[in-house]
Design a protein that fits this description.
By secondary structure, this protein is mainly alpha-helical. It folds into 2 domains: 347 residues, no CATH class; 99 residues, no CATH class. 69% of the residues lie in helices and 0% in strands. The protein contains 21 helices and no strands. Helix 5 runs parallel beside helix 8 and helix 17 packs across helix 18. The protein is globular.
Protein backbone atom coordinates (compact mmCIF):
# COMPACT_ATOMS: atom_id res chain seq x y z
CA UNK A 1 0.00 0.00 0.00
CA UNK A 2 2.88 2.37 0.72
CA UNK A 3 4.13 1.85 -2.83
CA UNK A 4 0.72 2.82 -4.23
CA UNK A 5 0.45 5.91 -2.01
CA UNK A 6 3.96 7.07 -2.90
CA UNK A 7 3.67 6.32 -6.62
CA UNK A 8 0.07 7.18 -7.51
CA UNK A 9 0.95 8.57 -10.94
CA UNK A 10 3.03 5.53 -11.87
CA UNK A 11 0.33 3.12 -10.67
CA UNK A 12 -2.25 4.92 -12.81
CA UNK A 13 0.06 4.77 -15.83
CA UNK A 14 0.63 1.02 -15.31
CA UNK A 15 -3.11 0.34 -14.93
CA UNK A 16 -3.95 2.35 -18.04
CA UNK A 17 -1.14 0.56 -19.92
CA UNK A 18 -2.65 -2.77 -18.92
CA UNK A 19 -6.12 -1.65 -20.06
CA UNK A 20 -4.69 -0.51 -23.41
CA UNK A 21 -3.10 -3.92 -23.96
CA UNK A 22 -6.29 -5.76 -22.98
CA UNK A 23 -8.40 -3.61 -25.32
CA UNK A 24 -6.02 -4.20 -28.21
CA UNK A 25 -5.87 -7.96 -27.60
CA UNK A 26 -9.60 -8.52 -27.12
CA UNK A 27 -11.15 -6.01 -29.52
CA UNK A 28 -8.63 -4.78 -32.08
CA UNK A 29 -6.01 -7.46 -32.76
CA UNK A 30 -8.18 -9.69 -34.98
CA UNK A 31 -8.92 -6.87 -37.39
CA UNK A 32 -5.37 -5.54 -37.20
CA UNK A 33 -3.75 -8.89 -38.04
CA UNK A 34 -6.57 -10.02 -40.32
CA UNK A 35 -6.86 -13.46 -38.73
CA UNK A 36 -8.96 -15.11 -36.02
CA UNK A 37 -6.02 -16.73 -34.23
CA UNK A 38 -4.06 -13.66 -33.23
CA UNK A 39 -1.46 -15.64 -31.29
CA UNK A 40 -0.08 -17.78 -34.13
CA UNK A 41 1.91 -16.31 -37.01
CA UNK A 42 4.18 -17.81 -39.64
CA UNK A 43 7.24 -18.41 -37.44
CA UNK A 44 5.47 -19.51 -34.25
CA UNK A 45 5.80 -23.23 -34.85
CA UNK A 46 9.44 -22.90 -35.88
CA UNK A 47 10.26 -22.02 -32.27
CA UNK A 48 7.85 -24.53 -30.78
CA UNK A 49 8.75 -27.51 -32.96
CA UNK A 50 12.47 -27.04 -32.32
CA UNK A 51 11.81 -27.46 -28.61
CA UNK A 52 9.37 -30.34 -29.10
CA UNK A 53 11.95 -32.21 -31.17
CA UNK A 54 14.35 -31.87 -28.26
CA UNK A 55 11.69 -33.05 -25.81
CA UNK A 56 10.52 -36.00 -27.89
CA UNK A 57 13.62 -37.02 -29.83
CA UNK A 58 16.58 -35.56 -27.94
CA UNK A 59 17.72 -33.03 -30.57
CA UNK A 60 16.99 -29.33 -30.70
CA UNK A 61 16.28 -28.88 -34.42
CA UNK A 62 13.63 -27.77 -36.85
CA UNK A 63 14.71 -30.32 -39.46
CA UNK A 64 16.41 -33.65 -38.80
CA UNK A 65 17.20 -34.00 -42.51
CA UNK A 66 19.27 -30.83 -42.84
CA UNK A 67 22.63 -30.03 -41.23
CA UNK A 68 21.52 -26.48 -40.45
CA UNK A 69 18.19 -27.47 -38.91
CA UNK A 70 19.95 -27.52 -35.53
CA UNK A 71 20.60 -23.77 -35.71
CA UNK A 72 17.45 -22.37 -37.32
CA UNK A 73 16.18 -20.72 -34.13
CA UNK A 74 18.09 -19.64 -31.03
CA UNK A 75 16.81 -21.53 -27.99
CA UNK A 76 15.60 -18.75 -25.69
CA UNK A 77 12.07 -18.30 -26.97
CA UNK A 78 11.71 -21.96 -27.91
CA UNK A 79 12.28 -23.00 -24.30
CA UNK A 80 9.99 -20.27 -22.97
CA UNK A 81 6.99 -21.27 -25.08
CA UNK A 82 7.89 -24.97 -25.13
CA UNK A 83 7.76 -25.33 -21.36
CA UNK A 84 4.42 -23.52 -21.21
CA UNK A 85 3.15 -25.75 -24.03
CA UNK A 86 4.02 -28.87 -22.04
CA UNK A 87 2.44 -27.48 -18.87
CA UNK A 88 -0.71 -26.80 -20.92
CA UNK A 89 -0.95 -30.49 -21.77
CA UNK A 90 0.34 -30.09 -25.33
CA UNK A 91 -2.87 -28.26 -26.15
CA UNK A 92 -2.25 -25.27 -28.44
CA UNK A 93 -5.72 -23.87 -27.74
CA UNK A 94 -4.65 -23.45 -24.11
CA UNK A 95 -0.92 -22.85 -24.52
CA UNK A 96 -0.90 -20.05 -27.08
CA UNK A 97 -3.47 -17.78 -25.35
CA UNK A 98 -1.67 -18.46 -22.05
CA UNK A 99 1.67 -17.43 -23.57
CA UNK A 100 0.00 -14.35 -25.00
CA UNK A 101 -1.32 -13.21 -21.61
CA UNK A 102 1.97 -13.96 -19.87
CA UNK A 103 3.71 -11.73 -22.41
CA UNK A 104 1.16 -8.99 -21.78
CA UNK A 105 1.73 -9.18 -18.02
CA UNK A 106 5.51 -9.08 -18.46
CA UNK A 107 5.21 -6.10 -20.77
CA UNK A 108 3.08 -4.28 -18.22
CA UNK A 109 5.84 -4.96 -15.70
CA UNK A 110 8.23 -3.44 -18.26
CA UNK A 111 6.43 -0.12 -17.76
CA UNK A 112 7.69 -0.21 -14.18
CA UNK A 113 11.17 -1.31 -15.29
CA UNK A 114 11.57 1.51 -17.78
CA UNK A 115 10.30 4.00 -15.20
CA UNK A 116 12.98 2.83 -12.75
CA UNK A 117 15.63 3.02 -15.48
CA UNK A 118 14.59 6.59 -16.28
CA UNK A 119 14.51 7.55 -12.60
CA UNK A 120 18.02 6.20 -12.03
CA UNK A 121 19.51 7.74 -15.17
CA UNK A 122 17.91 11.18 -14.95
CA UNK A 123 17.25 11.38 -11.20
CA UNK A 124 14.05 13.28 -11.98
CA UNK A 125 10.66 11.74 -11.38
CA UNK A 126 8.94 13.80 -14.06
CA UNK A 127 11.22 12.52 -16.82
CA UNK A 128 10.75 8.95 -15.58
CA UNK A 129 6.98 9.40 -15.65
CA UNK A 130 7.10 10.84 -19.17
CA UNK A 131 9.14 7.80 -20.19
CA UNK A 132 6.69 5.37 -18.61
CA UNK A 133 3.76 7.09 -20.36
CA UNK A 134 5.49 6.85 -23.75
CA UNK A 135 6.24 3.16 -23.23
CA UNK A 136 2.80 2.43 -21.79
CA UNK A 137 1.14 3.58 -25.02
CA UNK A 138 3.90 2.67 -27.49
CA UNK A 139 1.93 0.86 -30.21
CA UNK A 140 4.84 -1.05 -31.68
CA UNK A 141 5.35 -3.07 -28.52
CA UNK A 142 1.63 -3.40 -27.76
CA UNK A 143 0.87 -5.10 -31.10
CA UNK A 144 3.47 -7.83 -30.47
CA UNK A 145 2.34 -8.69 -26.93
CA UNK A 146 -0.40 -11.18 -27.93
CA UNK A 147 1.61 -12.79 -30.74
CA UNK A 148 3.67 -15.90 -29.96
CA UNK A 149 6.80 -14.26 -31.34
CA UNK A 150 9.98 -13.42 -29.44
CA UNK A 151 9.71 -9.63 -29.78
CA UNK A 152 7.86 -8.98 -26.53
CA UNK A 153 9.85 -11.30 -24.26
CA UNK A 154 13.20 -10.12 -25.68
CA UNK A 155 12.30 -6.51 -24.85
CA UNK A 156 11.35 -7.56 -21.32
CA UNK A 157 14.73 -9.22 -20.73
CA UNK A 158 16.58 -6.31 -22.35
CA UNK A 159 14.88 -3.80 -20.03
CA UNK A 160 15.46 -6.08 -17.05
CA UNK A 161 19.18 -6.13 -17.88
CA UNK A 162 19.27 -2.31 -18.05
CA UNK A 163 17.26 -2.10 -14.83
CA UNK A 164 19.99 -3.99 -13.00
CA UNK A 165 22.77 -2.19 -14.85
CA UNK A 166 21.44 1.15 -13.57
CA UNK A 167 20.78 -0.18 -10.06
CA UNK A 168 22.95 -0.22 -6.94
CA UNK A 169 22.59 -3.98 -6.54
CA UNK A 170 25.94 -5.49 -5.52
CA UNK A 171 25.38 -8.26 -8.04
CA UNK A 172 24.37 -5.83 -10.80
CA UNK A 173 26.97 -6.90 -13.35
CA UNK A 174 26.21 -10.60 -12.89
CA UNK A 175 22.48 -9.93 -13.25
CA UNK A 176 22.99 -7.62 -16.23
CA UNK A 177 24.99 -10.35 -17.95
CA UNK A 178 22.35 -12.99 -17.25
CA UNK A 179 19.39 -10.99 -18.53
CA UNK A 180 21.08 -9.45 -21.57
CA UNK A 181 22.08 -13.03 -22.50
CA UNK A 182 18.47 -14.17 -22.19
CA UNK A 183 17.39 -11.24 -24.36
CA UNK A 184 20.03 -12.20 -26.93
CA UNK A 185 18.94 -15.85 -26.93
CA UNK A 186 15.47 -14.60 -27.87
CA UNK A 187 16.53 -12.00 -30.43
CA UNK A 188 20.06 -12.15 -31.92
CA UNK A 189 20.32 -8.43 -32.76
CA UNK A 190 20.49 -7.65 -29.04
CA UNK A 191 24.04 -9.07 -29.19
CA UNK A 192 25.08 -5.54 -30.19
CA UNK A 193 24.14 -4.33 -26.72
CA UNK A 194 26.85 -6.47 -25.12
CA UNK A 195 29.93 -4.54 -26.38
CA UNK A 196 28.13 -1.25 -25.70
CA UNK A 197 27.56 -2.20 -22.04
CA UNK A 198 31.20 -3.27 -21.79
CA UNK A 199 32.30 0.09 -23.17
CA UNK A 200 30.14 1.92 -20.64
CA UNK A 201 31.65 -0.15 -17.81
CA UNK A 202 35.11 0.90 -18.99
CA UNK A 203 34.21 4.59 -19.36
CA UNK A 204 32.39 4.76 -16.01
CA UNK A 205 35.37 3.24 -14.21
CA UNK A 206 38.20 4.75 -16.24
CA UNK A 207 40.04 5.83 -13.07
CA UNK A 208 40.42 2.28 -11.75
CA UNK A 209 41.79 -0.59 -13.81
CA UNK A 210 41.00 -2.94 -10.94
CA UNK A 211 37.29 -2.05 -11.01
CA UNK A 212 37.17 -2.29 -14.80
CA UNK A 213 38.62 -5.80 -14.78
CA UNK A 214 36.41 -6.89 -11.87
CA UNK A 215 33.16 -5.62 -13.38
CA UNK A 216 33.99 -6.83 -16.90
CA UNK A 217 34.79 -10.27 -15.48
CA UNK A 218 31.47 -10.44 -13.62
CA UNK A 219 29.51 -9.35 -16.69
CA UNK A 220 31.47 -11.49 -19.16
CA UNK A 221 31.27 -14.59 -16.97
CA UNK A 222 27.48 -14.58 -17.16
CA UNK A 223 27.57 -13.92 -20.90
CA UNK A 224 29.84 -16.94 -21.29
CA UNK A 225 27.75 -19.21 -19.06
CA UNK A 226 24.27 -18.22 -20.28
CA UNK A 227 24.62 -17.12 -23.88
CA UNK A 228 27.87 -18.98 -24.49
CA UNK A 229 26.18 -22.33 -23.94
CA UNK A 230 24.54 -21.90 -27.36
CA UNK A 231 27.63 -21.53 -29.63
CA UNK A 232 29.50 -24.05 -27.47
CA UNK A 233 26.69 -26.57 -28.01
CA UNK A 234 26.77 -25.89 -31.74
CA UNK A 235 30.49 -26.53 -31.96
CA UNK A 236 30.71 -29.49 -29.59
CA UNK A 237 27.61 -31.33 -30.83
CA UNK A 238 27.61 -30.37 -34.50
CA UNK A 239 31.13 -29.15 -35.29
CA UNK A 240 29.83 -25.75 -36.50
CA UNK A 241 30.70 -22.47 -34.78
CA UNK A 242 27.38 -20.63 -35.20
CA UNK A 243 26.90 -17.72 -32.81
CA UNK A 244 23.27 -16.85 -33.49
CA UNK A 245 21.17 -18.76 -36.02
CA UNK A 246 21.20 -20.01 -39.60
CA UNK A 247 18.09 -19.72 -41.74
CA UNK A 248 19.09 -22.55 -44.05
CA UNK A 249 17.78 -25.10 -41.58
CA UNK A 250 14.14 -24.72 -42.65
CA UNK A 251 12.73 -26.23 -45.83
CA UNK A 252 11.59 -22.85 -47.16
CA UNK A 253 14.90 -21.16 -46.32
CA UNK A 254 17.12 -23.58 -48.17
CA UNK A 255 20.24 -22.35 -49.94
CA UNK A 256 18.31 -21.53 -53.12
CA UNK A 257 16.13 -18.97 -51.31
CA UNK A 258 18.96 -17.56 -49.17
CA UNK A 259 21.19 -17.04 -52.22
CA UNK A 260 18.31 -15.34 -54.06
CA UNK A 261 17.76 -13.09 -51.05
CA UNK A 262 21.45 -12.21 -50.92
CA UNK A 263 21.57 -11.45 -54.62
CA UNK A 264 18.40 -9.37 -54.58
CA UNK A 265 19.75 -7.21 -51.73
CA UNK A 266 22.82 -6.50 -53.82
CA UNK A 267 20.56 -5.02 -56.52
CA UNK A 268 17.55 -3.54 -54.74
CA UNK A 269 16.16 -2.91 -51.25
CA UNK A 270 13.13 -5.27 -51.29
CA UNK A 271 12.71 -8.79 -52.57
CA UNK A 272 9.20 -8.27 -53.91
CA UNK A 273 7.76 -8.36 -56.52
CA UNK A 274 10.55 -10.67 -57.70
CA UNK A 275 10.01 -13.24 -54.93
CA UNK A 276 6.24 -13.21 -55.39
CA UNK A 277 6.57 -13.61 -59.16
CA UNK A 278 8.93 -16.56 -58.78
CA UNK A 279 6.43 -18.30 -56.51
CA UNK A 280 3.56 -17.60 -58.91
CA UNK A 281 5.59 -18.58 -62.00
CA UNK A 282 5.23 -15.13 -63.53
CA UNK A 283 7.76 -13.10 -65.46
CA UNK A 284 10.49 -11.79 -63.15
CA UNK A 285 12.15 -8.49 -63.95
CA UNK A 286 14.94 -6.89 -61.94
CA UNK A 287 16.11 -3.26 -62.14
CA UNK A 288 18.29 -2.31 -65.13
CA UNK A 289 21.45 -2.52 -63.01
CA UNK A 290 21.04 -6.32 -63.01
CA UNK A 291 21.39 -6.53 -66.80
CA UNK A 292 24.58 -4.58 -67.44
CA UNK A 293 26.38 -7.51 -69.07
CA UNK A 294 24.91 -10.06 -71.44
CA UNK A 295 26.53 -12.92 -69.54
CA UNK A 296 24.97 -11.90 -66.23
CA UNK A 297 21.60 -11.31 -67.91
CA UNK A 298 21.58 -14.87 -69.23
CA UNK A 299 22.71 -16.26 -65.88
CA UNK A 300 19.95 -14.37 -64.11
CA UNK A 301 17.28 -15.71 -66.47
CA UNK A 302 18.57 -19.23 -65.89
CA UNK A 303 18.57 -18.79 -62.10
CA UNK A 304 14.99 -17.50 -62.20
CA UNK A 305 13.83 -20.43 -64.35
CA UNK A 306 15.49 -22.95 -62.04
CA UNK A 307 14.06 -21.21 -58.96
CA UNK A 308 10.55 -21.45 -60.36
CA UNK A 309 10.83 -25.08 -61.41
CA UNK A 310 13.27 -27.02 -59.24
CA UNK A 311 14.17 -24.95 -56.18
CA UNK A 312 12.90 -26.88 -53.18
CA UNK A 313 13.22 -23.88 -50.88
CA UNK A 314 10.97 -21.78 -53.09
CA UNK A 315 8.54 -24.65 -53.46
CA UNK A 316 7.93 -24.71 -49.71
CA UNK A 317 6.73 -21.12 -49.57
CA UNK A 318 3.02 -20.43 -49.34
CA UNK A 319 1.63 -19.56 -52.76
CA UNK A 320 4.09 -21.64 -54.81
CA UNK A 321 2.56 -22.43 -58.17
CA UNK A 322 2.77 -26.23 -57.85
CA UNK A 323 3.34 -28.90 -55.23
CA UNK A 324 6.41 -28.70 -52.94
CA UNK A 325 9.51 -30.43 -54.26
CA UNK A 326 10.53 -33.32 -52.03
CA UNK A 327 12.94 -35.27 -54.22
CA UNK A 328 15.74 -34.16 -56.52
CA UNK A 329 16.24 -30.42 -56.77
CA UNK A 330 18.67 -27.91 -58.20
CA UNK A 331 19.25 -25.84 -55.07
CA UNK A 332 23.04 -25.98 -55.31
CA UNK A 333 23.05 -24.79 -58.91
CA UNK A 334 20.64 -21.95 -58.08
CA UNK A 335 22.81 -20.94 -55.13
CA UNK A 336 25.97 -21.06 -57.24
CA UNK A 337 24.50 -18.79 -59.94
CA UNK A 338 22.99 -16.25 -57.56
CA UNK A 339 26.23 -16.13 -55.55
CA UNK A 340 28.24 -15.43 -58.72
CA UNK A 341 25.77 -12.73 -59.74
CA UNK A 342 25.98 -11.13 -56.30
CA UNK A 343 29.78 -11.08 -56.42
CA UNK A 344 29.64 -9.44 -59.84
CA UNK A 345 27.22 -6.79 -58.54
CA UNK A 346 29.52 -5.96 -55.63
CA UNK A 347 32.50 -5.74 -58.00
CA UNK A 348 30.79 -3.80 -60.78
CA UNK A 349 28.44 -1.59 -58.75
CA UNK A 350 30.12 -1.01 -55.37
CA UNK A 351 28.52 2.41 -54.80
CA UNK A 352 25.06 0.92 -55.24
CA UNK A 353 25.88 -2.01 -52.95
CA UNK A 354 27.75 -0.23 -50.15
CA UNK A 355 26.05 3.16 -50.14
CA UNK A 356 22.86 3.66 -52.17
CA UNK A 357 21.04 0.50 -51.08
CA UNK A 358 21.99 0.83 -47.40
CA UNK A 359 20.82 4.45 -47.37
CA UNK A 360 17.57 3.33 -49.00
CA UNK A 361 17.22 0.75 -46.23
CA UNK A 362 17.94 3.39 -43.59
CA UNK A 363 15.34 5.74 -45.05
CA UNK A 364 12.78 2.95 -45.04
CA UNK A 365 13.70 1.90 -41.49
CA UNK A 366 13.31 5.38 -40.01
CA UNK A 367 10.66 6.96 -42.23
CA UNK A 368 8.42 4.00 -43.05
CA UNK A 369 4.88 5.39 -43.37
CA UNK A 370 2.64 2.46 -44.26
CA UNK A 371 1.90 -1.22 -43.77
CA UNK A 372 2.30 -3.63 -46.64
CA UNK A 373 -1.29 -4.84 -46.21
CA UNK A 374 -3.78 -1.95 -46.22
CA UNK A 375 -6.87 -3.97 -47.11
CA UNK A 376 -8.90 -2.71 -44.13
CA UNK A 377 -9.60 0.71 -42.64
CA UNK A 378 -7.83 -0.32 -39.43
CA UNK A 379 -4.69 -1.30 -41.34
CA UNK A 380 -4.75 2.01 -43.20
CA UNK A 381 -5.21 3.87 -39.93
CA UNK A 382 -2.41 1.87 -38.32
CA UNK A 383 -0.10 2.90 -41.15
CA UNK A 384 -0.35 6.51 -40.01
CA UNK A 385 1.03 5.54 -36.59
CA UNK A 386 4.41 5.07 -38.25
CA UNK A 387 4.69 8.87 -38.37
CA UNK A 388 4.51 8.77 -34.56
CA UNK A 389 7.30 6.19 -34.51
CA UNK A 390 9.47 8.38 -36.76
CA UNK A 391 8.83 11.39 -34.52
CA UNK A 392 9.90 9.46 -31.41
CA UNK A 393 13.04 8.23 -33.17
CA UNK A 394 13.95 11.84 -34.01
CA UNK A 395 13.19 12.93 -30.44
CA UNK A 396 15.34 10.06 -29.19
CA UNK A 397 18.28 11.06 -31.37
CA UNK A 398 18.00 14.70 -30.31
CA UNK A 399 17.68 13.70 -26.67
CA UNK A 400 20.70 11.40 -26.90
CA UNK A 401 22.89 14.21 -28.22
CA UNK A 402 21.57 16.61 -25.57
CA UNK A 403 22.59 14.09 -22.94
CA UNK A 404 26.14 14.06 -24.25
CA UNK A 405 26.59 17.62 -23.04
CA UNK A 406 24.30 17.72 -20.00
CA UNK A 407 24.67 14.45 -18.06
CA UNK A 408 27.84 13.13 -16.45
CA UNK A 409 26.53 9.56 -16.15
CA UNK A 410 28.09 7.83 -19.15
CA UNK A 411 25.25 5.34 -19.39
CA UNK A 412 23.78 7.70 -21.98
CA UNK A 413 26.28 6.14 -24.42
CA UNK A 414 23.94 3.14 -24.57
CA UNK A 415 21.15 5.36 -25.88
CA UNK A 416 23.39 6.56 -28.72
CA UNK A 417 25.62 3.64 -29.64
CA UNK A 418 23.20 0.72 -29.48
CA UNK A 419 20.61 2.25 -31.86
CA UNK A 420 23.39 3.38 -34.21
CA UNK A 421 24.96 -0.08 -34.25
CA UNK A 422 21.65 -1.88 -34.73
CA UNK A 423 20.40 0.38 -37.51
CA UNK A 424 23.79 0.30 -39.22
CA UNK A 425 24.05 -3.51 -39.00
CA UNK A 426 20.56 -4.18 -40.33
CA UNK A 427 20.70 -1.54 -43.09
CA UNK A 428 24.36 -1.78 -44.16
CA UNK A 429 25.29 -5.34 -43.15
CA UNK A 430 26.02 -8.01 -45.72
CA UNK A 431 25.18 -11.30 -44.01
CA UNK A 432 21.99 -13.25 -44.93
CA UNK A 433 20.08 -11.86 -41.94
CA UNK A 434 20.84 -8.21 -42.71
CA UNK A 435 19.16 -5.82 -45.18
CA UNK A 436 15.86 -7.64 -44.68
CA UNK A 437 14.04 -4.60 -43.35
CA UNK A 438 11.17 -5.50 -41.03
CA UNK A 439 10.20 -2.94 -38.41
CA UNK A 440 10.09 -5.50 -35.61
CA UNK A 441 13.81 -6.13 -36.08
CA UNK A 442 14.47 -2.53 -35.01
CA UNK A 443 12.23 -2.72 -31.94
CA UNK A 444 15.08 -3.08 -29.37
CA UNK A 445 16.76 0.08 -30.68
CA UNK A 446 13.45 1.94 -30.90
CA UNK A 447 12.64 1.07 -27.28
CA UNK A 448 16.08 2.26 -26.13
CA UNK A 449 15.52 5.54 -28.00
CA UNK A 450 12.38 6.18 -25.96
CA UNK A 451 14.64 6.88 -22.96
CA UNK A 452 16.44 9.92 -24.43
CA UNK A 453 13.18 10.89 -26.17
CA UNK A 454 11.61 11.39 -22.74
CA UNK A 455 14.54 13.61 -21.77
CA UNK A 456 14.09 15.68 -24.93
CA UNK A 457 10.34 16.03 -24.37
CA UNK A 458 10.94 17.19 -20.79
CA UNK A 459 13.51 19.67 -22.09
CA UNK A 460 11.00 21.08 -24.58
CA UNK A 461 8.31 21.30 -21.90
CA UNK A 462 10.66 23.34 -19.73
CA UNK A 463 11.44 25.69 -22.62
CA UNK A 464 7.74 26.10 -23.36
CA UNK A 465 6.98 26.69 -19.68
CA UNK A 466 9.70 29.35 -19.35
CA UNK A 467 8.45 31.13 -22.46
CA UNK A 468 4.92 31.25 -21.06
CA UNK A 469 6.22 32.73 -17.81
Amino acid sequence: MNFVRNNKALVIIIIVGLIARIIFTLFIAKDYFGRDNIQVDGDTYAWLNSFLNLWKHGSYTINFHHDYGYFFRMPGYSFFIGIIYLLAGNNPDIAFPLISWIQIILDVFSIYLIYKIGLKVFEKKRIALILSVIYSFYPFIIVWNPVVYSESISIFFMLLSLYYFTSNNKYKFYLTGIFVSLALLNRPQIALLVPVIMLVIIVQNHDSLKRILKFLFQFSLMIFLVYGSWPIRNYVNHNKLIYTQDLRGAENWNEDVVSFLQYTYSVKAEWDPQMRNILQNKKVIFPDIAYITKEDSLKLEKAIYLSQNCGSGFSNWRGYWKEPITGDNCNKEIAKIFTELRENQIKDNPINFYLILPLTNLKKAIFKANLYDQSTFLRRLASKIFYYRTLLIIFGILGAFLLMFRVNNKIHLIFILFPILLYFALCFGTSPQFRNIEMRYFLPADIILLIPASYFLNHMLLIFKNKKV
